């Protein structure tokens, strides 16, 4: 019975990644990574179904979404080979070849690696499994589901910004004078995007009429000191600050809403808060930027408390 269940599961997965070329079934399925919809950055080639009816994904873009930093992806133009490394796993893929190498072990794919618009494409299944992820197919929603235990995966959308290169992994942990910040995930949106307009309808962001970007992040604040730490009418000094920079300018995002006492320490969207010694809170932090007059090439987060600062640069210009 177990063997039969395995065979059925394998058949469903192969059906997802070997889609017939006619009718609605020829459409590329949706792709979700750790529950987050995979969106191809503007200007980059989309996933597609090749002549062998395999759902093909960009090694670099899907690799980025699975936590592989750009610095760990190398292209050898002469050999037409891409080398990708994560957590001591080294993957070698050569255009036109059906075999790939994972830590020196040959893995035979069911189609060849292809070069399209400057990107190397192979079946999604082999990208995911080579990086230790699991892959399934939801027939009802026609969605490829990729899951991984890596805590940095599905935690940001920064790969959508073609000019930025992510240089750190999540979660991000900072500490200043006993105040500990953990950034679980972060999403950077342009203020005129549909997702932000929808969020603004619900939350009524302050200063939104001047906003150029918005940061939507899930954070945990923990008071490890021996005194109460607060962000309210008695202490309006910013504690968590998102920042951008170019070679000429630097700017800070600001809190998107004023301190609203009925909503203090909200677990929905964090505005004002008070933490006694030993207390912590996990919530959404929303901040906007209306200072950036041109695209920035540095993005990061800063924790500032009691004249002590701790910062982490998350992404830089390519």
Automatic annotation (TrEMBL):
Pfam families (UniProt xref): Cu_amine_oxidN1
Residue ranges of the TM segments: none
InterPro entries for the chain: Cu_amine_oxidase-like_N, Mao_N_sf
Region forming the signal peptide: 1-24
Residue ranges occupied by any Copper amine oxidase-like N-terminal domain in the UniProt entry: 44-146
Protein name: Copper amine oxidase N-terminal domain-containing protein
Signal found in the keyword field: yes
Keyword annotations from UniProtKB, A to Z: Signal
Taxonomic lineage of the native organism: Bacteria, Bacillati, Bacillota, Bacilli, Bacillales
């Amino acid at each position: 019975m177990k063997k039969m269940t395995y065979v059925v599961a394998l058949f469903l997965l192969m059906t997802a990644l070997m889609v017939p070329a006619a009718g609605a079934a020829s459409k590329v399925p949706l792709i979700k990574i750790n529950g987050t919809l995979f969106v191809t950055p503007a200007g980059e080639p989309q996933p597609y179904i090749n002549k062998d009816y395999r759902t093909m994904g960009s090694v670099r873009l899907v690799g980025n979404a699975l936590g592989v930093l750009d610095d760990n992806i190398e292209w050898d133009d002469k050999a037409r080979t891409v080398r990708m490394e994560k957590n001591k796993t080294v993957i070698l893929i050569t255009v036109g070849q059906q075999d790939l190498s994972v830590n020196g072990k040959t893995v035979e794919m069911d189609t060849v690696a292809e070069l399209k618009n400057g990107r190397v494409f192979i079946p999604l299944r082999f990208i995911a499994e080579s990086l230790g992820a699991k892959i399934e197919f939801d027939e009802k929603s026609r969605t490829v589901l990729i899951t991984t235990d890596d805590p940095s995966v599905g935690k940001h959308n920064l790969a959508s910004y073609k000019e930025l290169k992510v240089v750190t992994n999540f979660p991000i942990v900072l500490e200043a004078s006993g105040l500990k910040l953990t950034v679980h995930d972060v999403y950077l949106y342009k203020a005129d995007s549909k997702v932000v307009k929808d969020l603004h309808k619900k939350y009524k962001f302050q200063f939104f009429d001047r906003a150029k970007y918005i940061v939507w992040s899930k954070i945990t604040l923990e008071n490890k000191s021996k005194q109460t730490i607060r962000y309210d009418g008695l202490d309006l000094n910013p504690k968590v600050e998102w920042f951008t920079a170019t070679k000429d300018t630097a700017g800070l995002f600001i809190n998107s809403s004023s301190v609203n006492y009925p909503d203090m320490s909200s677990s929905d969207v964090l505005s004002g808060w008070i933490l006694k010694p030993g207390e912590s809170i996990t919530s959404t932090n929303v901040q906007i930027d209306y200072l950036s007059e041109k695209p920035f090439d540095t993005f990061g987060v800063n924790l500032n408390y009691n004249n002590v600062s701790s910062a982490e640069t998350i992404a830089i210009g390519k």
